[in-house]
């Protein structure tokens, strides 16, 4: 019955070359959060205006961030994964 497992799988947004998986560690306010990135770096990430009212971000959420080229300790949040999608990423070994 492995077909049932494949049906439950959804195609997720995967990181581009300049993006990394991250987990929200702390809410800072003023549309900023502290994230722990998959590359081992802790960054301050900005929630862009297009996500502020539409997507609620909480501590523990798995997000996709795009680190800034000119300042590596900062990043922009590009996408938030639902809890079911985050679980799928963990099962497939993309995130720890």
TrEMBL record:
Homology family: Belongs to the eIF-1A family.
Residues covered by the S1-like domain: 8-82
SUPFAM superfamilies for this protein: Nucleic acid-binding proteins
The species this protein was found in: Halobaculum lipolyticum
InterPro entries: NA-bd_OB-fold, RNA-binding_domain_S1_IF1, TIF_eIF-1A, TIF_eIF-1A_CS
Record-given protein name: Translation initiation factor 1A
Keyword Nucleotide-binding attached: no
Lineage, broadest ranks: Archaea, Methanobacteriati, Methanobacteriota, Stenosarchaea group, Halobacteria
Function: Seems to be required for maximal rate of protein biosynthesis. Enhances ribosome dissociation into subunits and stabilizes the binding of the initiator Met-tRNA(I) to 40 S ribosomal subunits.
